[in-house]
Write a structure and sequence with these properties.
Elements (H helix, E strand, L loop, with lengths): L5 H12 L3 H20 L4 E3 L3 E8 L2 E4 L6 E4 L2 E8 L1 H8 L2
Antiparallel strand pairs: 1-2, 2-5, 3-4
Helix pairs in contact: 1-2
C-alpha cells in the first residue's frame, strides 16, 4: 500500500495542466487550506463527485481503558467527518 502526498498531488496537477511545480503546489495547498478554514468556521464542505466534510460535536461519555479495563470518561470533542458521495463510492468499489 502506498501513500499519496501533497507533493504527489502537486506533480499530477503539474503534468495535467502545465503549471510550474510551485504553482501546482500552491493549488493543492490552497484547496486543503480552504477546506480546513471552512470547517473551522463551522461550514459543511461539499466537493462534487468526492463527498462531504463536516464537523461533529461528540458528547462526553463513559468508556473503558483498554489496557486495564477500568472505567474512564471520554471527554467531549469535535471531530472531522467525511461522507463519500455515491459516485466516489462506486469508483472505489468497482475499480
Amino acid at each position: 500500500m502506498t501513500t499519496i502526498t501533497r507533493a504527489d498531488l502537486s506533480e499530477s496537477i503539474q503534468q495535467a495542466t502545465g503549471l510550474t511545480g510551485t504553482e501546482s503546489y500552491k493549488v493543492v495547498d490552497l484547496f486543503f487550506s480552504e477546506i480546513a478554514d471552512s470547517l473551522v468556521r463551522g461550514e459543511e464542505v461539499k466537493v462534487s463527485g468526492l463527498g462531504t466534510f463536516k464537523i461533529l460535536d461528540k458528547k462526553q461519555r463513559m468508556g473503558r481503558n483498554p489496557k486495564t479495563g477500568e472505567p474512564a470518561i471520554i471527554s467531549a470533542r469535535r471531530v472531522v467527518s467525511f461522507r463519500p458521495s455515491m459516485e466516489f463510492r462506486k469508483k472505489v468499489t468497482n475499480f
